Amino acid sequence: MKVDFLIIGAGFTGATLAERLASAGKRVLVVDRRDHIGGNAYDEYDPHGVLVHRYGPHIFHTNSKKVWNYLSQFTEWRPYYHRVRAVVEGKEIPLPFSLASLRALFSPRLADKLEEKLIAHYGYGARVPILGLREAEDPDLRFLADYVYRNVFEGYTLKQCGLRPEELSPTVTARVPVLVSYDTRYFQDTYQAMPKEGYTALFRRMLAHSNIKVLLGADWREVEGEVRFDRLVFTGPIDEFFGYLHGPLPYRSLSFGMEFFGEPWVQEVGQVNYPNEHPYTRSTEFKHLTGQDYLPHTTLAYEYPRITTWTRLWPEPLSFLRRSSATEKFCAVIVTYNRKDLLRECLTAVLSQTRPPDHVLVVDNASTDGTPEMLKAEFPQVEVLRLPENQGGAGGFHEGMKRAYEMGFEWWWIMDDDAFPEKDALVLLSRYSSQAEDLVPLQRNVGGSLYGVGYWKGKYVSVWGNLGNSTR
Ligand SMILES: Cc1cc2nc3c(=O)[nH]c(=O)nc-3n(C[C@H](O)[C@H](O)[C@H](O)COP(=O)(O)OP(=O)(O)OC[C@H]3O[C@@H](n4cnc5c(N)ncnc54)[C@H](O)[C@@H]3O)c2cc1C
Asked: Could you tell me the distance, in angstroms and rounded to a whole number, from the CA of residue 150 to the centre of ligand 1?
């Protein structure tokens, strides 16, 4: 097969390019490894007939008339202004933090005073980044800034990204302003709406051109030898494209849990954020976004942060598991909880192997002893998957092996944080990789008895049993 353009990825970027090129007379093949078009904006009907966004809620908003007009060729729109609330001290307050939030939280007297000062200092309608507000000289404004920082921003940022707000780039923190107005819309863009029949229908129309062919469920590596093309457009993770030549890029990742409710509505607005409680960061009730008001039941998505120093995957629902490529690569998976000194020794032994693992993943079972800081300072090359709560050894290994599986590693070298492999352990084990599905090297604990640390080859195992004693 010969095409002018081979486009990898059927999301917004791939679909737009494909449509534009096809309309200019080019022959295009679009390939996506997912089994659907739409990329992260994909939506689908769940078993109860609720239109849900599999990879997290997507609200369309832009200031560009050109973008709006272009997409309007492929969809009608449903007017929608996204409204978000945050739960703070048991009250639901509007987000972004605005004059309306002041009223929801404080006594009328205090709210009046703060409102007056905010307008006097910044002017009605201003958007003040929270970190900027913290530098205000006025003690009342600083009180407000500290309050918002502590109760709305800090917990959410820590939960979401594993970072304090000041560690984030100002371009990120500027996205979370205090609004000196009563505008309770989450976005202020000129054009805000939802595709009337959903995103997938929009993408289907974009890709319906007779010059476009679409191949789903295929990784581009599988087709590169089969298709001849003049130009390639790759819209996936660029570090993966180059085989992690310069190491993996730092991405943030998420998991979603969908929950069905037998009642018509659960939330008053589309999204509720939980900066201070629950393992999830936010919940979204899709019916607000999509307008399926007529349904007597509803579905909500709960969003769980997956804090990693990097991840090459975009958000995937928990049930979406697949081996991405058949590599003979080794990923060390180490589960830890509050034993940073042992972990340090373990990592040192793992990283100084004569044949080092291709990737090292530490699953931190919500340690509270400074483990994240130690890892960040001393082992920046290691991926850290921090769980929102201690899930025990079984839960930790479950998450770690799932992650290693998702990343396409053929072999997972799994161990507790108190295992200290000999320097040549991995090279010796790898010699047997063609002869067995699972390898369990014998090891000694300090008491002298033997125990095993296992390799699980290429197969996703959802339940993990305790293999035995640890070395200390
Ligand atoms: C949780 C979440 C919420 C968001 N909310 C909003 C929002 O409300 N409003 C908004 O405007 N934006 C939102 N975004 C951003 C939006 O999702 C992206 O801007 C948009 O999806 C980017 O489109 P894309 O085509 O570049 O990438 P993607 O949508 O990620 O599409 C890339 C495609 O490439 C495929 N691919 C990758 N590698 C390969 C390979 N090797 N072989 C074959 N196929 C491959 C992937 O499977 C994927 O389908 C959100 C993003 C997330 C994660």
From this structure: 31
